[in-house]
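How a chain folds remains the central question behind the approach discussed here. The record that follows shows the chain in one-letter code together with its fold in token form:
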Amino acid sequence: MSGMAESVVLGPGGGTTVQNPVGGPLTIKVRGEQTNGSMSVFESTVAPLEGPPLHTHAREDEVLYIIEGEFRFRLEENVSLAPARSIILVPSGTRHCFQNIGALPGCILVMFTPAGMEAFFERFASLPEDADFESGFRSIGREEGMDVVGPPLAVSHPL
């Protein structure tokens, strides 16, 4: 890529909002085009008891910061609690997933480096309402460098 990264100041509610695969809105706060491809940043609202299937990213490192709510995370075989203000680092290739274990929607700030996961979330959000969530997540994810390697925490490690 050529060019320089842009400076960005984005207030509350700013960004592009799409439907989150784990229930609720997902707002793209910083896009790869703004960072010369070095990172993208999302604000993700996660419905109670929801979370993605166990998956890996081929190229992106992922950092998640819990803004509000209580979550649990699986990184490889380890499952840990992550209350508000926790930070989680997921290096590329690491099998991981999470679950909102609270009674209310939770909110996570998600950063990917390098950028590129915007395409997954935008494509997933454009699926028809009657589409199969699991197969859509798996097929779109594979095309965007994310492989589903197991079930969500709710299935693999029920509460």
Observations:
- The chain is about 15% helix and 40% strand.
- The first helix runs from residue 118 to 125.
- The domain at 16-156 is CATH 2.60.120.10 (Jelly Rolls).
- Helices lie at 118-125, 133-143, 153-156.
